[in-house]
Write a structure and sequence with these properties.
By secondary structure, this protein is α/β, with parallel strands linked by helices. The protein is 43% helix and 11% strand.
């Protein structure tokens, strides 16, 4: 039986920094004279910072010079980082720690696969950095999900074949990336949004050890 490896996305899977992104984008939108809703924020999940700004400007019907865009990207990121600075273990999403502890006990290789360029500082803030055997983040990849690059690099770093890799994701782009790579995709969140995933759970509190055992066996 070939060895399995597991890759976790970060935002919305391990910690809910998506909420911090939302607050920072909303603040920028309000400064520019329009509102930005949580529903609209759904389309920003798993999307690069530059593309997110383009989407925000489309929502507000705004045009901007490159200089303005660069300034806004920087101020948005500074606000986001100020939220990260206040993070602790309490920001780990419910049930995640139990699943990670179980996988470590079983010696399952695990990696982080995130578009975030702040993934490592976040993991360090919440004391999870030593848990991961590999971390692949926005500084390691050039293509955004649904391109599977981030997960393929993660599998390679774990020394695991794509077909033996299991991915936990909260965005449809991330689920699609896992599927394109030929990996098992597990959605965390709304089943209607993540319907392309092989399995979907609302959160990690719903994931039983029997399910994990079955996944690692198949």
């Amino acid at each position: 039986m070939s060895k399995k490896g597991i890759i976790f996305d970060l935002d919305g899977v391990i910690v809910n920094t998506a909420g911090f992104h939302y607050l920072a984008w909303k603040h920028l939108a309000n400064d520019l004279g329009f509102d930005f809703t949580e529903e609209q924020n759904e389309d920003f999940k798993g999307v690069s910072r530059v593309r997110s700004l383009e989407l925000l400007l489309e929502i507000g019907g705004k045009t901007a010079t490159q200089e303005e865009k660069d300034k806004w990207l920087e101020s948005k990121n500074e606000e986001y980082l100020s939220y990260i600075d206040g993070m602790s273990e309490e920001d780990i999403l419910p049930g995640v720690k139990k699943v990670l502890d179980y996988l470590k006990k079983k010696n399952v290789p695990i990696a982080l696969g995130s578009a975030s360029k702040n993934a490592v500082p976040i993991l360090k803030r919440v004391n999870l950095y030593p848990v991961f055997d590999a971390t692949v983040d926005g500084t390691d990849v050039s293509k955004a999900k649904p391109d599977p690059e981030v997960f393929l690099i993660g599998a390679k770093e774990l020394g695991i074949d794509a077909a033996d890799t299991i991915v936990f994701e909260d965005s449809i782009a991330g689920v699609q990336a896992a599927n394109i790579a030929g990996m098992v995709s597990i959605g965390i969140g709304d089943a209607e949004v993540l319907h392309e995933a092989d399995y979907v759970f609302n959160d990690f509190t719903e994931i039983e050890t029997q399910f994990l055992d079955q996944l690692l066996k198949n």
